[in-house]
Amino acid sequence: MTRPIAIVGPTGTGKSQLALAVAERIGGEIVNADAMQLYRGMDIGTAKLPVEQRRGIAHYQLDVLDVTETASVASYQRGAAADVETIMGREAVPVIVGGSMLYIQSLLDDWAFPATHPAVRARLEQRLAQVGVEQLHRELAKVDAVAAESILPSDGRRIVRALEVVELTGRPFAASAPTIGSPRWDTAIIGLDWETEQLDARLAARTQQMFDHGLVHEVVTLLDKGLRDGVTASRALGYAQVIAALDDPEPDALTRARAQTYVATRRYVRRQRSWFRRDHRICWLDGVGEGNLEDTLQAWRHVS
Questions:
Q1: Where in the chain is the domain with CATH 3.40.50.300?
Q2: CB 173 within 8 A of CB 144
Q3: Which entry of 181, 188, 286, 293 is 20 to 30 Å from 142 by CA?
């Protein structure tokens, strides 16, 4: 059976380890659905599994962009769908794993994206420069609260795109999304989550580990490769905070960056939960559960 499995949910819940265990058991191959893991060199701050920890399992949609390139949902959808179908064509099981909400929905629901308009886009980008990203995010929330929940308040490019769609279509950006129905390829969708207090502790430890294990040095290295000019890469959680700290002469700037990264990650987790919990197709598992591998395989074997 080559029916794909998608393992989704908030950041820090252990999705990558479950995906590895699943792929190893059934001969699967992994397709990344974390937008920032698309970038070469963004390893520590995205918790990207090192090659030596991938157990020899093939991974796709990792390290496909330079930090100066702009990630887009539409481009990801095309590339990831091709990967899924190639894996199935070899009679292997695609294991899709990640927490980037729009990326996952675009892939599993075959999202058809509205057209763009250069003049409208340019005007919105000018407004972004005038009022700032946080104000523009508030404006998006007024016209499309669902889209605002899924887009980071620091992600000016996606905020502009959502507002562009609203203006061009006369409908909320979310209205262009497909109706949730049968997932593409009859994918079995597994959600992984923890109790909030437990996950907060995991996120705090994860953030500390990233800074202890070289996140600042990674950012400095990527700045030499053009990270500051990257429209999407420079706004990634952790990276944006470190860049700001490196520009700050205060001696405690990096300490504050670590705390800010943790707080921003918690906020992002809340948005992820809100988004994923609306999807009735997801079979939710407790992150601490010892039987998650077997429960995942049971859900996968049940043909919908």
A1: 5-112+186-301
A2: yes
A3: 181
Query: In which order are the strands placed within the sheet that holds 59-60?
Result: 59-60, 28-32, 93-97, 5-8, 188-193, 283-286
For tokens 């987790």, name the residue. Answer: 269
Integer Cα distance of 154 and 142 in angstroms: 17
pLDDT tens profile 184-238: 999 999 999 999 999 999 999 999 999 999 999 999 999 999 999 998 999 999 9
Residue 290, pLDDT score: 80
CB hemisphere CA count around 52 (13 angstroms): 0
Indicate whether 304 pLDDT > 60.
Answer: no
Nearest to 54 by CA among 94, 17, 25: 17
Q: Tell me the fold of 5-112+186-301.
A: Rossmann fold (3.40.50)
Burial of residue 304 (number of CB atoms within 10 Å: 0-12, 13-18, 19+): exposed
Determine whether domain 118-176 maps to CATH 1.10.630.10.
no
21 CA to centre of own chain = 21
Structure pTM?
0.85
Give the pair of three-digit tokens for residue 303. 């043909």
pLDDT tens-place string over residues 130-156? 999 999 999 999 988 888 887 888 888
Query: 163 with 140: CB under 8 angstroms?
Result: yes
What is residue 60's three-state secondary structure?
A: strand
Q: What is the token pair recorded at 211?
A: 């800074």
